[in-house]
Each structure stands twice: as C-alpha cells, then as structure tokens.
TrEMBL record:
One of its GO terms (cellular component) is cytosol. Pfam families: SAPS. InterPro entries: ARM-type_fold, SAPS. This is Protein phosphatase 6, regulatory subunit 2a.
Length: 658
C-alpha cells in the first residue's frame, strides 16, 4: 500500500531561512526553534551567530520588555533567548564568550539600580554560569578586570540568582589550579567578610537571609571539594576564613549588636550550625568495609613507574631506589591496602625485579659471590634486611589465618603474597643468586628462620598444592578408588558428581574457543545452505582403530555373549528390549572404566559393532496372526501366495553407514 503522508523531513525553519529578509523574531515564533538549535541545524546556527542576532538575544535577557504587553507573553521572547544562549552549542558559546562587546552588554545588567527583575536576573545568572563552565578562561579573565564585580553582585544579593552566580564561581571552575586562582581572587575581594557584614541587624531581612544561605552553601561546597580533591594540598582560603575565630566573632557581633531582631539571630545561627556540622571524613564505604584513606591514582602511578624502572635492571637505578627507601614504602602500602590488587601486582613485580637483578649482578660479577663484599646498599640485602620481607610475609600470613579462624574474610592480597613467597623460594633454591639469598636467610634471627622453614615446608607447600589443578592425577585417583567388583554399567551418584567435577576443573587453553566448536558464523542465518549447521561433522576425526583393542577387551570381559547363557534360560522368551537404554548404559560403563575414550567414540564403537555387521540377521519363523499389525497398520487380506506373519524382515534393512 502507499502512504498518504508527506515524508519530506524539511522543517519550516529551513524554509524560513531560505527566504530573504527573515527576522530573528520570526524564527523564535516557531515552536521547534530550540529543538533545531540543539540538534545542530547548521543553517539555523549560522543565522543565530550573526552579530545582530547575538546582540538582540543578549538585549532580550538584560532589558525589561515593554510594559504594555500581555503578562503571559511579555517574557516569552526573553525566555526563548536565554534557552538559545544556554543551549550548550559550541558555535554560540564561542561567539558569546569570545566577543567582548557581548560580555560588556551582559555585565551592564549588574550596573542597574536594585532591585533587579527576578526573572531577568535568573536569565543573566544562567547565561553567565554557562559561560563560566564552557568558556572559563575568557570569562574569568573578563570578570577579574572588573574591580567592582563582587560589589555589584553583593549589591543585588536580595535576588537569589546572585547567590547562584557566586556558587558557580566557586564550584564550576576547572581545572583545579584555575579554581584555586579564582578562590584566591574571591578571598582578596574579601567575599566572606562582606557577606558576614550583611548579617548585621540593621540590614534588610531578605539580604540577611540570602547572605546566610550563601555562607552555608560555601561551607558545605568547600568541605565536599576538599574531600574529593585529595591531591590538592593547598587549603581552601574561603573555608579558612569562615572557620577562623575572627570571622566567628564578627558574626556574633553582627547578630547581637544594636537592635536585636529575630531574623538576624536565626540567620546567624544557621551559619554557626553549619560550621559545627560534623566534618565528613575522607573514609570511603566499600563492600569490604570503610576505607579511611584511599591509595589514590598518584601513588598507584608512582608504583607502576618504580616497577618499570626496576625492570630495566639498571644498577644505578636500583641502588638509587634502595637509597631512597622506596621498596620499604611500597611494602608498607602493600600490607596497608589489602584490597587494592592493582597495587599488589606492581609490588610483586618490584620484588621479582630486585631478585632477578641480584641474579644478573652475580652472573656479571662472579667474583662477588659473597654478599658481605657488596656495598651496604645492595638490592638483595635491602630487601631482606632493611625491608624485612621474610618477617612481613610470616606476620601477614599468621594474621590472615587468625582472621579466618575467627570467621573473617580472607585478605585480598594473599594471592599476590603467595606469589611473592614462591618467588623468594625459587630464587633461594635454584636462582643465580641463591647463595647470596641463602646467606641473607641464615642471618635472620633464629626464631624467624625456624618460622620461615616451617612456613615453606608446610604452609606454603600445602597452599601451592591446593592452588594447583591436575586433572590427570585427580582422575587416576578416582579410578583407583572404585570397587573392583562393580558389575553394573550404570555409574553411582558419586561417580556422576566426580565426572562433572572433572569436567568443571579441566584446564582452559588459549585456543579453547576454537576447540569448543562454536564461532560467530554459526549463530548467523544460513538461508542458502540448510546443511551449514552440520558441515563441521565431517571434520571430526575419530580414531576408532587406535582404541579397537581396548574396546574388544572390554566387550569380552564385561558383555555376556549369547552362547554363554545358561541352558535353563530361554533366550527366545518374549521380553521388552530397549536398545537405546542398553546403548546408553554401555556408553556410561565404557566411559567409567575407560576414561581415555570419548563419548562420541564409545557411541560409534557400539553402533559399529552392534548395528553395522552385515552378517547379523534375525529369523523368528511363523507366528499366529494377530488382529492388528505390529507396525500400526491394518492386517492384509489372505490371498493366494501370500504369507502374512505381521513381522518385519530384518534382512531387508540396509546396514547403517556413516
């Protein structure tokens, strides 16, 4: 069918823009002008960014509209103009923030006598606030040149929009260095002291209330940002003034000096309560508890840098790191931040690099085999003597065991600690620097040396045994524990569970996805080739001959032959035979006693030996005709030359082939 609707997507705004002499007001009359602007309509943006259009938009948000207009339509165009200017479109932001004449026109709004129109004040604050966030450098530079900017803002503090403007200056400036410059500038302008002066009993109540609220918001914002920006070491100057004794004394003086009013007491008390609010500490709530002081990105990157430097195996770098006591600090962090695995990896790499560096040094200087002949700042002695690596490993392990014995959670750095301990043991036993490390271990206190030997011989060995997955030994252990007199082809529940466990713990290799048998193409549609899903069957290579001897031996041992049956048992008695069940049971039996065979191989063996022998036939002779066919059909009419036995002739079946 044909659609009756017009599918032309050209908007009416594009048609207006194609017309000569179109005005800004005509475009602003269109309902979708704001939507088209945010959708980056190129023709519309080029028109709006023209000088006369930008001047008109700024005029609309800074000058009172004619008073003779209807109230519901009086601020329609100023509202649309504000939305267009703050639509966060790069072309408009660049034009407004880069044209000083437009900024001067905006700034002129503050030079009016109070009170300001609250709606226009909100349009002005929103526009300037957007420029502070998007064109920070240009706008901050422009405002700092205006020496009376803070005075004008405070002069209009009765308008709540001026509060928002001050808070945007404090919270929306990025990066942190520029933000600190702005805070210092505001502090030089004595912003906090001048807001505190507005709390005097003789001031207007609206000014008192807004000044009080501004001070409370500055306190909360400054404290929150101080917690979030932990890398900034310079204190917030505005918060420092607010919390100073001089400022608090001035606040109390303004509250009670002269004629006391309820408004001054209430507003001043709000500031005092905010100052006395419990400070939010830098603790972070995580899934494993409260983190009092985060590690931070800076320290983690330094740890990565140290690990990379040590991996260069440069002697001078390693000696300098030892001289600066860097490894001792990294180990302190390793045991303090037990759940930061990013840090744990870097410390592990550092330890391994130091031990390897000691090995390379011994290899390059065979005459210096005794560590006593080395400088005191040697990397190996630094790690074992000054950093007390062995003692720290033992103490941390014992503390973790105690925590787990009390029902606690295993610490997150225990895996990396195990790897560090294994690295030490490996270098101690067969590393190139084993003699040096041996001497260092011998110099440990006697009790510590005994603890280390017991730890290596028992605890660490058992931990490594648990962490090592050996599928072959596990399966052999299971096979040897089975009862020898088990005759049933069906495995018990224990063997089923063990088989599934063996399947779960099998080791995955890099080409696991390829071996698993699936790829992206198999999940796509195969309209042209309906056999595409079965094409890979031909690629399967079953080596039947290689396991034929094992299968024959199993058959002779476990499967009872027809000619071995006892004489009193009539093998021709009618009984229900379920070949599928027998095949499945024999498959399970084969897998249970001969795990080297795969399930597909076992099934193919059974099919091959039981179903494809062309010499196997069955002749059951004649039997009485029943009223219905054994195959579900109606009986044939008796006729000459016909013999109706209602039995299938198995000799007519063709052998199965693959």
């Amino acid at each position: 069918m044909f659609w009756k609707f017009d599918l032309n997507n050209t908007s009416h705004i594009d048609q207006l823009l194609d017309r000569e002499g179109v005005t800004l007001r005509e475009l602003m009359e269109e309902e979708d002008v704001l939507q088209e602007c945010k959708a980056q309509n190129r023709k519309l943006l080029l028109f709006l960014s023209k000088d006369h259009c930008m001047q008109e938009l700024v005029t609309l948000i800074t000058e009172e509209p004619p008073a003779d207009l209807e109230e519901k339509t009086r601020f329609k165009f100023p509202n649309i103009a504000c939305e267009l200017l703050t639509s966060d479109v790069a072309l408009i932001n660049d034009k407004l923030g880069g044209d000083e004449s437009l900024l001067e026109k905006l700034y002129h709004f503050l030079e009016q006598e109070p009170p300001l129109n609250p709606l226009l004040a909100s349009f002005f604050s929103k526009t300037i606030g957007n420029l502070i966030a998007r064109k920070t450098d240009q706008v901050i530079s422009f405002l700092r040149k205006k020496h009376n900017f803070i005075s004008l803002v405070l002069n209009h503090i009765d308008a709540s929009a001026m509060m928002d403007l001050l808070l945007r200056l404090i919270s929306c400036v990025e990066p942190a260095l520029l933000r600190m410059e702005v805070l210092n500038w505001l502090n030089e302008e004595r912003l906090i002291q001048r807001l505190t002066e507005l709390m005097h009993t003789g001031r207007d109540e609206e000014r008192q209330s807004n000044a009080s609220q501004t001070l409370c918001d500055i306190i909360r914002l400054s404290r929150d940002q101080a917690n979030q920006l932990s890398e900034v070491t310079e204190p917030d100057p505005l918060l420092a003034v607010l919390e100073s004794q001089e400022n608090v004394s001035e606040l109390l003086k303004n509250m009670f000096e002269g004629e006391r009013t309820e408004a001054s007491v209430v507003n001043g008390t709000q500031v005092l309560l905010t100052l006395l609010e419990s400070r939010r500490s830098g603790a972070i709530l995580t899934t494993v508890g409260v983190l009092e002081q985060p590690l931070g990105s800076a320290r983690l990157h330094v740890a990565r840098l140290v690990a990379s430097l040590l991996q260069t195996c440069d002697l001078s770098i390693c000696q300098e790191i030892c001289r600066l006591n860097t490894m001792d600090l990294l180990l302190d962090l390793f045991f303090k931040y037990t759940w930061n695995n990013f840090l744990h990896l870097q410390v592990e790499l550092c330890v391994a690099s130091i031990l390897n560096h000691s090995a390379h040094s011994d290899h390059q200087n065979p005459g210096l085999q005794n560590h006593e002949e080395r400088p005191a700042t040697g990397t190996g002695s630094q790690l074992f003597q000054h950093c007390r690596l062995v003692q720290r490993i033992l103490d941390a392990w014992e503390e973790n065991d105690k925590i787990q014995a009390e029902g606690g959670r295993r610490r997150g750095n225990m895996g990396h600690l195990t790897r560090i301990a294994n690295t030490v043991v490996q270098n101690l036993e067969k590393g190139l620097a084993h003699s040096q490390i041996n001497d260092l271990i011998k110099e440990l206190p006697e009790d510590c040396r005994g603890r280390w030997e017991g730890f290596v011989g028992e605890t660490l060995r058992e931990t490594n045994r648990r962490n090592t997955v050996d599928l072959v030994s596990t399966h052999n252990l299971h096979s040897s524990s089975e009862d020898d007199d088990m005759e049933s082809p069906f495995p018990n529940d224990l063997s089923i569970q063990q088989a599934f466990s063996d399947y779960q713990i099998q080791q995955m290799t890099a080409n696991f996805v390829d071996q698993f048998g699936f790829n992206d193409e198999e999940f796509s549609e195969h309209d042209e080739n309906i056999n595409a899903a079965f094409d890979r069957i031909a690629e399967i290579n079953f080596n039947i001959d290689a396991n034929a001897a094992a299968f024959e031996a199993c058959c002779k041992e476990r499967i009872q032959q027809f000619d071995d049956c006892e004489e009193e048992e009539d093998i021709w008695d009618e009984k229900e035979i379920n070949y599928a069940t027998q095949i499945k049971s024999r498959s399970r039996y084969m897998l249970h006693h001969h795990p080297q065979l795969g399930i597909f191989q076992v099934n193919l063996f059974i099919e091959h030996y039981l179903c494809t022998d062309p010499g196997w036939t069955a002749s059951f002779g004649e039997t009485e005709v029943s009223s219905s066919s054994a195959w579900g059909g109606s009986p044939q009419q008796e006729g000459e030359g016909q013999q109706d036995t209602n039995w299938a002739s198995f000799t007519e079946f063709q052998p199965f082939s693959r």
